[in-house]
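In this supplementary section we document a worked example of the pipeline. Step one takes a protein sequence of length 288 as its only input; no multiple sequence alignment statistics are reported here. Step two produces a three-dimensional model, which step three serialises into structure tokens for compact storage. The input and output of this example are shown verbatim.
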Amino acid sequence: MLSNVVTVREFNIYSDSHATIKALSSTTNKPLINTLSIDDNHGKRLKDNEVRACTSNVRSLNGIDAASRLVDVLGHTNKRSFGVGFVVGERLCRKVLAFTPVGERLAAIRIKANFFNISFICAHASTEEKDDEVKDTFYEQLERTYERCPRHDIKAVLGDFNARVGKEGVFGPKVGKLSLHNENSPNGLRLIDFVGARNMVISSTKFMHKKIHQPTWLSPDQETRNQIDHVVIDGRHASSVLDVCTIRGSNIDSGHYLIAANIRTRLNAAKTKEQKTQGKLDVGKLQS
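The serialised model returned by step three reads:
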């Protein structure tokens, strides 16, 4: 089964619950399990230069009939495995410039936007219990995938990083002070190292919400709650992220909640000095 999926829908149209969906996954013939989506904001008409990107890990299913509903939508498989992918709405398919499957934990998609094209990377990092070698391999692949994205694109990485990011305040503006956790986990430090080396920002720790809307994962015991799914964007376009919040009402019976990021694509207004043109000289006055 896929462990991370990105769902992409039209930005500036009303929602259509009957829209045809095309799946792009990094593995074949397997359901998409960890999802990132770009939604149309619950039927509200967004501005032409605004998008909504959502990510959710739906591999950890809680409900009794959750797996059967997922199979009905995405197809049947007897093999359980990791995998990441994107689900693209029919009206947005023509705007997909490229899809790049990297492995069972990484995939990238490039979408044509109004000003800057957008490169989304869907990621599913290893848990804390995995060996350091496995974690190093994942971040090496993530680095190569990020570097392959066109230089001038808006680059965003979304997904399940299995990383608790603290609000310790020693990492500067790369990490916000509104995280659910006070201290970083080892995976959180790895994510911060990746972000700091590329001048990126963990936007999911930048916005104030009620504590009930901060956790992204609920343990099977229904008691432990962690913020381990994140939205990361390059620092140049960090101000384009208008909000990141948890949507608890998504009916996927997963241990992970849906994470939504509102992103505005815009050009920076560059101030230019007004240049005065010099008038034509009167040569006759110089001769006199």
